[in-house]
């Protein structure tokens, strides 16, 4: 049994009052117990953060940057262990968990570097006045993250928030607390003062809600469902604190007949099967021109059919979904589809086979669905791709923009004018042309429009998100 996951609050003397099971999604077994933090643990963590933050903010930027660089080195040092834990907790293939750990280290290294080049402006009001702006941290920031990329999500908010002089209290997802707790321990080993990074595991309705309601939390970051995001936004509005919401999407690949279909088929497959489709930016809709629809559907279906499934630690192409609950959700969408044709998949693996005890789902392609069908509108969060055929550019755009979401989109065409025209017209926070994703995406501002949320994480832009501008006006002479 792995050790108990304790609330990581600096100097905490709180006894663990309650626990819940940490379940392995590959076979349903119990991996261990997680401390069930609640309002009291959150309060203690926020107090520790509030106490540590002023001195941390006053620490010279170079020293904060050095500490983040050391943390990056420690994440690299422990990469294999972190990847193993992440793979077991989430079910994701080991090589994907290794890539996540690499990206996590990159966040600390990147923000350690760029924060030293972040400064305010001077504003030329006239010879008698000196005006300048300062970027100031909010103080204690609360971060609530999802179970799909636990280590990456924790790292991206902790790195940018602490680089800019904030202290963080992070609530990991109920299902996947272990790498976030390990990260908090590494932060202390790297020399970040006690109280600057705090992790309180627990359930959303308890620890999560307590964090959003805490009067000393001055900024809220959230990654998860639109439904919970709305609650977080309400809590932020009650206390008039800013919130950054990253709420997933229903992202489209738009493929024209002049595209490199091989490259498109490869990227489309990868973008919906990575992490078993449980990626906010998954390419879950294929908006495809009628002339190439049959060819592209066959190419993607062939790749789906050749996919290997198994426990994440065996490093297959596709691991289980994060939980039985998530599997039921995917089943509900696929079995409820009232239009189109299931070309491949459509079920869980055979119930008399090796994978029956896990939360697996076969890669599924449903061709030609009605764009109004829930499977074409809502976030399924599983390895499920739907195709929506079009005949001209206007229809392609209408389909691509035709959901409540607006996270990312991809265009596949060799026509440069069309690519730029549509990149401007697509409702999304990121648009990729003849590719999908780019490295770990650390440098690229990320976030959505419409129901995908607001605010941006990643890139230099996140430094602005975790600070507010103070304008100082000095009368000269
Ligand atoms: P969720 O929104 O309920 O959970 C996300 C995080 O919010 C978790 O840490 C959870 O503990 C916390 N939370 C839950 N209730 C809360 C509350 N009242 N106050 C504060 N925090 C709270 O997501 P879920 O139920 O685990 O997943 C459901 C669906 O959400 C998925 O099927 C998927 O469509 C979507 N989702 C999106 C993303 C994304 O990357 N944008 C990630 C995970 C899930």
UniProtKB/TrEMBL annotation:
PROSITE patterns: ALDEHYDE_DEHYDR_CYS, ALDEHYDE_DEHYDR_GLU. One of its GO terms (molecular function) is oxidoreductase activity, acting on the aldehyde or oxo group of donors, NAD or NADP as acceptor. It holds the Pfam family Aldedh. It comes from the Bacteria. The keyword Oxidoreductase applies. Residues 18-472 form the Aldehyde dehydrogenase domain. Keywords: Oxidoreductase. The keyword Oxidoreductase applies. InterPro entries: Ald_DH/histidinol_DH, Ald_DH_C, Ald_DH_CS_CYS, Ald_DH_CS_GLU, Ald_DH_N, Aldehyde_DH_dom. Coiled coil: none annotated. The active site is at 246. Gene3D superfamilies: Aldehyde Dehydrogenase, Chain A, domain 1 (3.40.605.10), Aldehyde Dehydrogenase, Chain A, domain 2 (3.40.309.10). Belongs to the aldehyde dehydrogenase family. This is Aldehyde dehydrogenase.
């Amino acid at each position: 049994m792995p050790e108990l996951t304790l609330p990581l609050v600096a100097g905490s003397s709180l006894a663990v009052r309650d626990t819940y099971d940490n379940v392995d999604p590959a076979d349903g077994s119990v991996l261990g117990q997680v401390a069930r933090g609640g309002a009291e643990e959150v309060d203690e963590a926020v107090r520790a953060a509030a106490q540590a933050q002023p001195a941390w903010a006053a620490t010279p930027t170079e020293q904060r940057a050095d500490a983040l660089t050391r943390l990056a080195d420690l994440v690299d040092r422990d990469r294999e262990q972190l990847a193993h834990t992440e793979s077991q907790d989430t079910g994701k293939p080991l090589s994907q968990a290794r890539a996540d750990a690499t990206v996590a280290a990159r966040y600390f290294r990147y923000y350690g570097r760029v924060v030293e080049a972040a400064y305010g402006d001077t504003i030329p009001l006239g010879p008698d006045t000196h005006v300048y702006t300062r970027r100031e941290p909010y103080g204690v920031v609360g971060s609530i993250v999802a179970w799909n990329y636990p280590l990456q999500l924790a790292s991206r908010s902790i790195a940018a928030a602490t680089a800019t002089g904030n202290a963080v209290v992070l609530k990991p997802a109920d299902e996947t607390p272990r790498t976030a707790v390990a990260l908090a321990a590494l932060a202390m080993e790297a020399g970040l003062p006690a109280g600057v990074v705090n992790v309180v595991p627990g359930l959303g309705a308890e620890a999560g809600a307590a964090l959003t309601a805490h009067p000393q939390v001055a900024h809220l970051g959230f990654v998860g469902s639109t439904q919970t995001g709305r609650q977080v936004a309400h809590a932020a509005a009650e206390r008039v604190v800013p919130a950054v919401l990253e709420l997933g999407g229903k992202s489209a690949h738009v493929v024209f007949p002049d595209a490199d279909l091989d490259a498109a088929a490869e990227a489309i497959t990868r973008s919906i099967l990575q992490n078993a489709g449980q990626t906010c930016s998954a390419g879950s809709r294929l908006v495809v021109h009628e002339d190439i629809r049959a060819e592209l559907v066959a190419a993607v279906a062939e790749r789906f059919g050749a996919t290997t499934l198994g426990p994440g630690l065996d490093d297959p192409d596709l691991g289980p979904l994060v939980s039985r609950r998530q599997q039921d959700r995917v089943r509900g969408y696929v079995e409820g589809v009232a239009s189109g044709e299931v070309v491949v998949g459509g079920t869980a693996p055979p119930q008399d086979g090796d994978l029956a005890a896990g939360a697996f789902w076969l890669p599924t392609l449903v061709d030609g669905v009605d764009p109004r069908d829930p499977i074409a509108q809502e976030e399924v969060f599983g390895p499920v791709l739907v195709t929506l055929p079009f005949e001209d550019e206007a229809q392609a755009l209408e389909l691509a923009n035709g959901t409540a979401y607006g996270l990312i989109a991809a265009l596949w065409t060799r026509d440069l004018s069309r690519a730029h025209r549509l990149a401007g017209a697509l409702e999304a926070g990121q648009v990729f042309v003849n590719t999908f994703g780019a490295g770990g995406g650390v440098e690229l501002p990320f976030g959505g429009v419409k129901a995908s949320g607001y605010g941006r994480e990643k890139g230099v832009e996140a430094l602005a998100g975790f600070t507010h501008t103070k304008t100082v006006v000095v009368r000269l002479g």
